[in-house]
Specification:
Layout lengths: L3 E9 L7 H20 L6 E5 L1 H10 L1 H12 L3 E6 L11 H19 L5 E3 L9 H7 L4 E5 H8 L9 E5 L2 E10 L10 H8 L4 E7 L3 H8 L4 H14 L4 E3 L2 H7 L14 H7 L13 H5 L1 H18 L5 H13 L17 H18 L8 E5 L8 E5 L3 E6 L4 E7 L4 E2 L19 E5 L25 E3 L7 E12 L2 E14 L2 E10 L5 E12 L4 E8 L3 E4 L10 E14 L4 E17 L6 E12 L4 E11 L1
Parallel strand pairs: 1-2, 1-8, 1-9, 2-3, 3-4, 4-5, 5-7, 7-8
Antiparallel strand pairs: 6-7, 10-11, 11-12, 12-13, 13-14, 15-20, 16-17, 17-18, 18-19, 19-26, 20-25, 21-22, 21-23, 23-24, 24-25, 24-26
Helix pairs in contact: 1-3, 1-9, 2-3, 13-14, 13-15, 14-15
């Protein structure tokens, strides 16, 4: 009988931003039972991957876990696999950061456990052909891809995949085929069920996500995860005559792999499916679709690359640059850029953690005594049009000429992006990623218009580019203008909107001017949409100021109905968290309505300000809106 060589392993990672309670729960029900039980079966070998950020958590909370890893590694029962320190999706980050994260992980494992890793783990099996040369340059000998990726590359489905060599620019890398317990079968399986389903072959690689052990134990009905793992490993001990466990390095040392195969860009099916638009065929296209699947992922990706460029311009201070780079790498945690099973980009805590790290990195690049607040222009979202960035001591503000809207507002003390609101939409009106979005309505919208402010909008102002208007040279001022033709009661009217942004400490002031450039009267409703992210903060109360001051319980806000405050001049949203309140004030009282928005519901507050505007020919209407942040 052909004896099977069996590589068993787990890959383990928890995203940045996940709280300590969830970590401890996962540790006690997943990580600890697996390793402590494996330690009692010294004849069973395993290949284990832990992200660097997870190892840091062990170091702080459970150093005994690292001691056990070191002991098992020293007696060669386990082989520790390297990879990106913060578990990034490697093809989505800059090349220098790929090399740096892998080297940081390699150095950590070598110093902590005395051995340099020879294999690289790819989160979500995300692969591009040029990774072969990148990984080989980083000292990696092998990596893992799914059996499905092997079959797609070979164009056949009738044979069990075997290890191959792939190459890029003359640099070779061995690739091992994986049967993933969560991804390679019709339903998630445990290690025993996966081994039985895999059938006999010269080499079988079985990997399971370490965090899955809890659900596998719960499905088993056994009284503890320790007992579940003991029965699992006892099965492999019992069947050791048919399937001998080994480690990747040990296997490759005894077997020379010469068969060559080239893989196209791909990733796990769940990654590709989560990155495709609804109704789209997820089996084709680029894994980079994850960047544009949601406006939130596109914004975070753009922000990450912009910080990467800022750090690249830092000269002279190596210590400061090193600190900024590590914060940048922390902000590249792969879960934050797609709808990962952990919650991914849909989880405000994970997004907050990514933005916090990116803001830390940016602030580190600012040299004290040299940095001067001001406006710079840069194409940070790679759409061929330069955006406007105000960099201040208290706030950062990113303005896009399309709509002349505020697409990012950073409260620097709290390290928060107050426009970091997730809606399951790509770029566009429905993405809820902007403030000061201009709307024109022919009739007064009701309170529910705040839920879909784009419905009934007759103006071109929200989605068309504004032209920059030169100002007096004030370093904290930007001015934009846009002409548009709208239909009002069957007649055409030419309306011009100007917006003058000025920034002062923790206040954004927008001076509006709306001019009727037609030779006849024009009557319409002007709407300004504001979308504020609360993230993990909780609303304590809302205070509306008009003729009277009214405090409103946040429970009166809904994600299915708009709440009208009537005509007011000021609205303050008081929160419990790092940002104490967000306030909006107007020099001309407006009809204001609010609703909870975002997915899951309640991640933010949408506000719609409405004014009835009546203009004679060439007449101009004006108002100022102030958006202030209190930390």
């Amino acid at each position: 009988m052909l004896k099977t060589h069996l590589i068993l392993g787990t890959y383990n990672h928890l995203p940045e931003g996940l709280d300590e309670t969830e970590f401890e729960k996962t540790y006690q029900s997943c990580y600890r039972p697996f390793l402590s039980t494996l330690n009692r079966f010294p004849e069973i070998q395993a290949a284990l991957y832990y992200s660097g950020s997870l190892l840091k958590r062990f170091e702080a909370r459970h150093p005994e876990y690292l001691m056990l890893l070191e002991e098992m590694s020293a007696r060669r029962q386990i082989e520790l696999i390297g990879g990106g320190f913060y578990a990034p999706i490697l093809p989505l980050i800059p090349n220098s950061d790929r090399l740096g994260q892998i080297e940081l992980m390699t150095t950590y494992l070598r110093k902590s456990f005395g051995k340099r890793p020879r294999g690289c783990w790819l989160p979500e099996y995300a692969w591009e052909p040029w990774l072969a040369s990148t990984l080989q340059s980083s000292g990696m000998d092998y990596t893992f891809l799914l059996d499905r990726q092997f079959k797609d590359a070979e164009g056949r489905d009738d044979a069990a995949p075997s290890p191959v060599v792939t190459e890029d620019q003359g640099r070779c890398l061995t690739v091992l085929p994986v049967r993933d317990c969560s991804l390679s079968f019709d339903r998630p399986l445990g290690l025993v069920e996966a081994a039985e389903a895999a059938g006999p072959s010269q080499l079988t690689v079985l990997m399971v996500a370490g965090e899955r052990i809890r659900s596998l134990w719960e499905e088993s009905g056994l009284e503890s995860p320790d007992l579940y793992m003991e029965r699992t490993l006892a099965w492999f001990r019992k069947n050791s005559l048919e399937a001998e466990t080994t480690t990747p390095s040990r296997y490759l040392k005894s077997r020379r792999v010469t068969r060559k195969l080239y893989f196209g860009g791909s990733a796990s099916e769940r990654f590709m499916k989560a990155s495709a638009r609804e109704g789209a065929e997820h089996a084709c296209g680029s894994l980079r679709r994850s960047i544009i699947r949601y406006a939130a992922s596109s914004a975070l990706y753009s922000r990450m690359y912009y910080v990467h460029l800022l750090i690249g311009q830092l000269r002279g201070d190596k210590s400061r640059k090193k600190s900024a780079v590590e914060d940048l790498w922390k902000g590249q945690c792969g879960d934050a850029y797609w709808m990962a099973p952990t919650g991914g980009i849909g989880d405000p805590a994970i997004r907050e953690a990514a933005y916090r790290s990116l803001l830390d990195a940016e602030l580190t690049t600012r040299q004290k005594g040299v940095f001067v607040p001001g406006v710079v222009k840069a194409d940070i979202d790679f759409d061929g049009v330069k955006e406007y960035i105000y960099q201040g001591n208290d706030l950062n503000a990113y303005l896009h000429p399309r709509g002349a809207v505020l697409v990012e507002l950073d409260a620097l003390k709290a390290r928060r992006n107050l426009c970091d609101l997730f809606a399951p939409e790509p770029e566009g009106d429905r993405s809820r990623k902007a403030c000061f979005v201009d709307r024109l309505y022919s009739a007064e919208p009701g309170p529910d218009a705040v839920l879909e402010p784009w419905a009934g909008d007759i103006g071109p102002f929200s989605s068309h580019p504004y032209e920059e208007v030169l100002t007096d040279g004030n370093h904290a001022t930007l001015c934009f203008a846009k002409d548009g033709v709208v239909g009002l009661n069957g007649a055409k009217r030419s309306i011009a909107v100007t917006k003058r942004y000025s920034f002062n400490k923790k206040v954004v002031r927008v001076a509006y001017g709306v001019q009727n450039r037609s030779d006849s009267d024009a009557r319409f409703w002007l709407g300004v949409e504001l979308n504020a992210s609360l993230g993990t903060d909780r609303i304590e109360w809302l205070e509306a100021s008009g003729s009277d001051v009214v405090s409103v319980d946040p429970s009166s806000l809904s994600s299915t109905r708009g709440h009208s405050f009537g005509t007011i001049a000021k609205l303050a949203i008081k929160t419990v968290g790092t940002v104490k309140s967000i306030a909006m004030a107007t020099t001309t009282p407006a009809v204001v309505s609010c609703a909870m928005v975002g997915s899951p519901a309640g991640q933010g507050v949408a506000t719609l300000l409405l004014w009835r505007v009546e203009l004679a020919a060439d007449e101009t209407w004006k108002t100022d809106i102030l958006l202030s942040v209190h930390e």
